[in-house]
Amino acid sequence: RLLFGYLEPLVMRPQMILAEFIGLFLFGVILNLAFIRTRSLFLPIGIHAGSVFIVKWQASFVRLGPDNEYPFYGKMPYYDGSVEWIILILLGFVVWFFTRKGQFSSR
Which pTM does this prediction carry? Predict the structure, then answer.
């Protein structure tokens, strides 16, 4: 019963979770890419801290709530809209181009 509680949204309402899954997957890829390219946790931690700051700052300008859906911004989590996906993809390219593989490694 407890396991079904975790899996119920995936089985019963996949369309509600798909957009958030895509955004979180892209963000995870970027954090992993930053770690792999630099061999350091400083850049991924900085990217995560900066994104949390942006989410909190954006809450000042966008009406919160799961019932408020914006065409390009998505809903409240700020990672389920097409604009956020484009920004995440661009951030991935920035991380890729401005870091060299193993640039900060001690070896």
Answer: 0.71
Angle formed at CA 77 by CA 72 and CA 81, multiple of 5 degrees: 20
The predicted-structure confidence for 35-88, as pLDDT tens digits, reads as follows 999 889 999 999 999 888 877 777 676 666 666 665 555 555 556 677 777 888
**Counting every residue, how long is the chain?**
107
What are the start-end ranges of the H helices in the chain?
2-12, 14-38, 42-58, 82-98
CB 84 within 8 A of CB 73: yes
Q: What is the per-residue burial (b if ≥16 Cβ within 10 Å, else e) of 62-88?
A: eeeeeeeeeeebbbbebbbbeebbebb
